[in-house]
Amino acid sequence: MLMKTEKLLLKLLASLRPAPLEADLRGFVVRPIPADLASGRELVLRGESVSLLHRSEDSLAQDPQCEHLTSQEISDALWRLICRVHLGHIGKSPRTHRQVAEDFLLSVRRPWSTYDFLQLVSGLKPDVQGLGIGRGTFVKLTPSLLRDWDLWDETFLPTYKGRVGLHLVIGAGSPEAAVTRGEAASRRIVDHLRIGLQQAINVRLHPDQLTFPTGWCAIRATGSSRWSRVQAGRTPPRQSTEWDARHVALAIDRLGALELIAETKPAALASRFSRAASWLSESKTLGLAPRLQFLSLFSAVRAVLGDRASGAGGTKGEVLALRSMLLGMATGDGFVDPIAITDLYERRSSITHGSEFDLGEDHLSEINFIATRVLFGSAQFVSSEPAIRSFSDLLRAIETADSLQTVHRWLSRQSGPTYERLQALADIKANGSVAAHSSASMR
């Protein structure tokens, strides 16, 4: 089966035929032919060939096995291939083009290498060495370790002796890509550590207790004795609280479900939880304005549960409130009064649309409680259900006919227009769930 990039290359090669200048002037590219192929000559591409050239360049740039190439190197390699076809160095039959495309991709693609990645992390005591979150492991920066990794010099030793680093093994096509991927993984781990500690300690922590600022990072090809690249960074200050192994172990225990989702679920679903964790972590940033804390926390809830009605009616706040009730029933944790969520959603809308709003400490505490409950409750539920592989699977798992009927009964005992609208929304969902179940039974 032909892959996308190969199909584009075949179309590009097939489009390379002589054409008069006036034939197609939608676009053109003029570049010299490489001197070793034809000295002093230029080639002009026009029309469809130009579009296919750019699309092929973009496809190769997104190919994980081409990470070792710069965009200019990709462009040069493709141009050389085009020139060889133009000059008749390559036959013009479809079978020949297919073999040429395959040979070209073999020549530019390269399997990933593995790299060791190390980044300085502040806010942790040295006894956390050996503990890990996800694929990262904390290490104590000792003189012997710095010497073994060729980081022993006047810059590193006095400043970093006795501090803590995060070690990861990263797969990448180039050192630059390894640094980018390592820093992203490090940020995710620090995000998870923040929310894991908050969940484990179970008391309100001040943001300056959870900053975990990071400093320099270094990478080397796995098995090499020398670091191939050191990314300079400021020396991070020590945060007000340095967490020891006991507290970090408690946080790691709370993070098990999130890490399991990251490792075992498809990327689209796992990214929802990663975004939610990042928003929840960002809400605890030192100096963040209360309204931004509030928006970050609400974004965490929306990342997990969404708020689009999918044709079932109801406002976004009502959809979110109903789903939070159904999630609470699925996890066995119970649910908060849906009125709390719809009221908080109205405050969120006022903030985002620039209207006047009233936002107090009680509102922040309430949305923090809801966001933490939704993230950890849903993570535990999703990680324990192998059949949940997408957001749609999650909705189907919580929007069961029995759960919707239970919610409907609870709502019918309440009074007020919001409860009535939620009851109507539950009715619509219940009818859809019953219809879907009947259809599946008939099949």
Detail the topology: elements first, then pairings.
Blueprint: H1 4-14, E1 28-32, E2 42-46, H2 48-61, H3 71-86, H4 94-108, E3 113-121, E4 132-133, E5 136-140, H5 143-148, H6 156-160, E6 164-172, H7 175-201, E7 214-221, E8 229-231, H8 245-254, H9 256-264, H10 267-282, H11 290-305, H12 316-331, H13 338-352, H14 361-383, H15 391-398, H16 401-412, H17 417-442
Antiparallel strand pairs: 1-2, 3-6, 3-7, 4-5, 5-6, 7-8
Helix pairs in contact: 1-2, 1-4, 2-3, 7-8, 7-10, 9-10, 9-14, 10-11, 10-14, 11-13, 11-14, 12-13, 12-14, 12-17, 16-17
Characterization of the model:
With 443 residues, the protein is an alpha+beta fold. It folds into 3 domains: 4-108, no CATH class; 113-254, no CATH class; 283-442, no CATH class. Helices cover 55% and strands 10% of the residues. It contains 17 helices and 8 strands. The strands form 2 sheets. It has a 6-stranded antiparallel sheet, with helices on one face. The protein has a two-stranded antiparallel sheet with strand order 1-2. A hairpin with a 7-residue loop joins strand 7 and strand 8. It starts with a helix and ends with a helix. The relative contact order is 0.08.
